[in-house]
Amino acid sequence: MQSVKPRLVPCPKCGTLAPFSPENPYRPFCSERCRTDDLASWAEERYRIEGNDPPEIQPPPLD
Ligand SMILES: [Zn+2]
């Protein structure tokens, strides 16, 4: 039987080589921590940008 080595890709967060395969549910990250950190920082950045120019949302007048 032929053994297939999973392709190793560098984690976008910390650069650690992690297997890019179904065995790694956090691909392309190396771990849950790196994936969570990256998503958190991305969300934070987005929130900050939106926070600089908050849209004025007026509720519709109740009549
Ligand atoms: Zn990592």
Can you offer a commentary on this structure?
- This protein is an alpha+beta fold and 63 residues long.
- The chain has a domain at 8-43: Erythroid Transcription Factor GATA-1, Chain A, CATH 3.30.50.10.
- The chain has one helix and two strands.
- It has one helix at 32-52, and strands at residues 7-10, 17-20.
- It has a two-stranded antiparallel ribbon.
- Strand 1 (7-10) and strand 2 (17-20) form a beta hairpin.
- The longest helix is centred in the middle third of the chain and has 21 residues, at 32-52.
- The chain is elongated and about 75 Å long.
- The model has no long low-confidence stretch (mean pLDDT 85).
- Zinc ion (ZN) binds next to loops.
Name the hetero compounds present.
zinc ion
Count of individual beta strands: 2
Distance between the termini: 74 Å
Using the coordinates above, name the CATH class of the domain at 8-43: Alpha Beta
Q: Give the count of helical stretches.
A: 1
The name CATH uses for the topology of the domain at 8-43 is Erythroid Transcription Factor GATA-1, Chain A
| Main sheet attributes: strand count, strand direction, barrel closure | 2 strands, antiparallel
Instruction: Spell out the CATH superfamily of the domain at 8-43.
Output: Erythroid Transcription Factor GATA-1, subunit A
Helical proportion, percent range? 25-40%
Radius of gyration: 20 Å
**CATH-scheme architecture of the domain at 8-43:** 2-Layer Sandwich
Compressed to H and E, one letter per element, the order equals EEH
- Overall mean confidence score, pLDDT: 85
Q: How much of the sequence is in beta strands?
A: 5-15%
Shape descriptor reads elongated
Low-pLDDT residue intervals, each spanning 5 or more residues: none
Category by helix and strand content: alpha+beta
Strand arrangement, largest sheet? 1-2
